[in-house]
Specification:
This protein is of the alpha+beta class. It contains nine helices and 16 strands. It folds into two domains: 135 residues, Sandwich (Jelly Rolls), CATH 2.60.120; 183 residues, Jelly Rolls (Sandwich). Helix content is 31%, strand content 26%. Helix 2 packs antiparallel against helix 4, helix 4 packs across helix 5 and helix 8 packs across helix 9. InterPro entries: cNMP-bd_dom, cNMP-bd_dom_sf, RmlC-like_jellyroll.
Length: 343
């Protein structure tokens, strides 16, 4: 049945999980030969999929159509006379065919053809889905499916490598999803960090600004000393990476650098309360994640200090962060382990 649903404009681009749930909501009906399923011109709210049997499709000129609501008429599913004119014969549909799916998306749409169980069929089996059930189901399942999509990001993160799938799903369900436009700030230096981010898509840059006396630079004259404002790019963060762990893990919860979106960023937020409730657990995979996060934060701080030292010595040398040369979180943790500095 799920394979038959893929042939329609509604279900064709849907996630498999949504397709399975829609099939569970459908109801089975059985109609005798010559029973009317759909009448042209009527309004309705049901989509039908043929399971067994044949149906004939007829269409007539719009000027000769009498319209009514399927939910209030007594004609629906009744056996009709062979002599009744329902217009020109168009086609015979068999198992797997879908009829009436347009009304699920457009409540004001009218049936554009008449569908009657073929006289060559003694009994026709169909399943149908009402518009109300469809809308309710799509809203619910879309939210659950978004959790699956977001949980896939955690699957590739070194920090959550040992987490069971069920626990990752619970964690994602507790995270707040947020978006930042390009040039928006995820974090401003000097403010209290209340949130840590898991980047789902997009890129963000850590930047630190500070003033440097020009007299400290080589070949500078003491009489010409002046303050120079330096903007140093510390680290480029991409999908599957943690952002703002520096200020988040500090005792005073204040960071020295900004985190600014380079492109549009979609991120999952980990609040301080959520993080504290999560890390008090004595489960092995939770403690493993916490130790890796602390080690990652230490390695990142070492890397930032090197960038700052280089920037203060050579303020005119702009060394941009390159995506292709960027160390990932997993790389930093592995290097730390290789140097014997713990997990």
């Amino acid at each position: 049945m799920k394979d038959n649903c893929k042939n329609t404009m509604i279900f064709g681009s849907s996630h498999d999980y949504i397709g399975r749930e829609i099939c569970r909501q459908m109801r089975l009906i059985k109609l005798p030969s010559r029973a009317m399923l759909i009448r042209q011109g009527d309004t309705g709210d049901r989509c039908y999929i043929l399971i067994d049997g044949l149906v004939d499709v007829y269409c007539k000129d719009d000027s000769h159509i009498l319209t009514c609501d399927e939910t209030t008429t007594d004609l629906q599913y009744n056996v009709v006379k062979v002599t009744t004119d329902y217009g020109e014969y168009k086609a015979t549909l068999g198992p797997g065919a879908v009829v009436g799916d347009v009304v699920l998306l457009n409540p004001s749409a009218r049936r554009n053809a008449t569908v009657i169980v073929s006289k060559r069929t003694t009994e026709c089996c169909l399943v149908y889905l009402g518009r109300v059930d469809y809308v309710r189901l799509i809203r619910t399942v879309s939210m659950e499916t978004s959790h699956y999509v977001q949980a896939e990001v955690l699957d590739y993160m070194y920090l959550f490598q040992k987490w069971p799938t069920a626990d990752r799903m619970k964690l994602v369900a507790q995270m707040r999803s947020t978006t930042f436009r390009a040039n928006d700030y995820l974090y401003r230096a000097g403010t209290i960090a209340t949130t840590m981010f898991v980047l789902v898509s997009g890129e963000a840059m850590e930047r630190q600004n500070f003033n440097l006396l020009e007299s400290s630079r080589p070949l500078a004259s003491k009489h010409n000393a002046a303050e120079v404002k330096i903007n140093i790019e510390l680290m480029l963060l991409g999908p599957g990476e943690i952002a703002n762990e520096h200020a988040f893990l500090k005792a005073n919860q204040v960071g020295a650098f900004d985190i600014k979106a380079v492109t549009d960023v979609h991120a999952l937020c980990i609040s301080r309360h959520m993080f504290e409730c999560m890390t008090v657990s004595d489960k092995d995979f939770v403690q493993d994640m916490y130790l890796k996060l602390v080690a990652l934060a230490a390695d990142r701080d070492d890397y930032r200090r090197e960038r700052l030292e280089f920037g203060s010595r050579y303020p005119d040398a702009h060394v941009a962060m390159c995506v292709g040369l960027r160390y990932t979180d997993a790389d930093l943790v592995r290097m730390r382990c290789a140097l014997g500095r713990g997990t």
